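We were asked to recover a plausible sequence for a given structure. The inputs and outputs are reproduced exactly as logged, with field labels preserved.

PROBLEM: sequence recovery
POSITIONS: 402
GIVEN STRUCTURE:
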């Protein structure tokens, strides 16, 4: 979704400036192009040569450079960008922007742009908490200037608190949100993700190997495309996707209840790897080992079938119900059988055999199975799968051509 988008990156003076090299590298992997303005302070932490080498574009520094202004003046720099990003955004440059000061190339360009502006603040925690800084933050937000971060943690000065610049992947996610195409604006989406944990006793549980990466990526993609998105997530190590309302659950019963509470929606994508069974009567206390070596007998009971329940939700049924079929053999045949049995509209079938590395990995090979036919998608990253599914959903609702 970011392919071809042009970012004007302003690197101000702060130790976090070194992160901009990784930011540019990761952004270019997603199809972004970068022009860079480096302030005098920023040049104390990162060199023009390194920024130029990784962006593959000239780095601009001087407002009154005859060469730079003749080749690409600051007005043109500001107008050709799809988004202006300031990272790190220091207290100084934020104050200049809040008060309309323009005494260098960076601040002048910020005043001259009509593109969206995104700030990634980075500074000492007391500077961030200072009343003057917070007043500037309020002024900038009132002008619809967006911010990502700052994060809390260890600071370069040795203190701990809010002031760390957001990590590159969080900044890129914020850029995606700002540059979303709004294809699905006005639609409501429900996505499930991750595993479920079914308790055996207060310590142990039944689960599976799902990381939640695919479901979280789908929720983020639908939100970027403008859908009002709710994510119902089992236990994962993933951060909540930006722009998404996330409900955290543990068991299948809790997931079903959260899904029912989210209805009605236009589209439901049920990507969670829900445990098929639970322990019929979980122990109230930790089950102790028997000195005789005998193992406890666990009676299992069926969990609620969330995909089937959502497919037969009557008047509250999503207009488009999409399930997943994680299989280790007979992929298409089992997916078609699941489509009929569950009553959903589409099934995304994927091979989760151990040698495929799908569970916990970053790539997926999808087969989209519908009542009419099946589509074999190429090997894609899970982010690419999410984007492709978003476009197929948009086409289903007549928002774009397939």
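RECOVERED SEQUENCE:
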């Amino acid at each position: 979704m970011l392919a071809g988008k042009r970012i004007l990156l302003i690197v101000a003076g702060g130790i976090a400036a070194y992160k901009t090299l990784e930011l540019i590298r990761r952004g270019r992997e997603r199809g972004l192009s970068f022009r860079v303005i480096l302030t005098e302070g920023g040049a104390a932490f990162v060199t023009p040569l390194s920024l130029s080498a990784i962006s593959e574009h000239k780095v601009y520094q001087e407002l009154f450079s005859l060469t730079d202004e003749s080749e690409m003046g600051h007005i043109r720099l500001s107008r050709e960008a799809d988004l202006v990003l300031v990272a790190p955004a220091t207290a100084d440059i934020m104050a200049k922007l809040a008060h309309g000061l323009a005494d260098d190339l960076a601040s002048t360009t910020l005043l001259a742009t009509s593109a969206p502006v995104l700030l990634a603040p980075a500074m000492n925690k007391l500077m961030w908490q200072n009343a003057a800084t917070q007043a500037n933050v309020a002024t900038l937000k009132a002008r619809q200037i967006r911010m990502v971060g700052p994060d809390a943690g260890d600071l370069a000065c040795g203190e701990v608190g809010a002031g760390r610049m957001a990590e590159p992947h969080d900044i890129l996610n914020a850029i995606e949100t700002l540059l979303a195409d709004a294809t699905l604006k006005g639609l409501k989406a429900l996505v499930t993700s991750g595993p479920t944990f079914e308790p055996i006793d207060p310590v142990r549980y039944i689960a599976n190997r799902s990381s939640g990466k695919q479901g979280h990526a789908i929720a983020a993609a639908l939100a970027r495309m403008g859908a009002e998105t709710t994510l119902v997530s089992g236990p994962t190590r993933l951060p909540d996707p930006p722009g998404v309302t996330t409900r955290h659950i543990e068991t299948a019963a809790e997931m079903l209840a959260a899904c029912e509470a989210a209805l009605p929606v236009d589209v439901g994508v049920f990507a969670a790897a829900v445990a098929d069974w639970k322990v019929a009567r979980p122990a109230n206390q930790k089950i102790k080992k028997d000195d005789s070596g005998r193992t406890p007998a666990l009676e299992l009971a069926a969990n609620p079938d969330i995909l089937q329940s959502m497919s037969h939700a009557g008047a509250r049924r999503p207009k488009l119900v999409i399930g997943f079929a994680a299989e280790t053999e007979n992929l298409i045949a089992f997916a078609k059988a699941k489509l009929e049995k569950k009553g959903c509209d589409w099934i995304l079938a994927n091979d989760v055999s151990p040698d495929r590395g799908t569970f916990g990995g970053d790539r997926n090979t999808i087969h989209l199975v519908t009542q009419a036919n099946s589509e074999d998608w190429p090997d894609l990253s899970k982010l690419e799968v999410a984007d492709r599914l978003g476009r197929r959903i948009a086409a289903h609702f007549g928002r774009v051509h397939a």
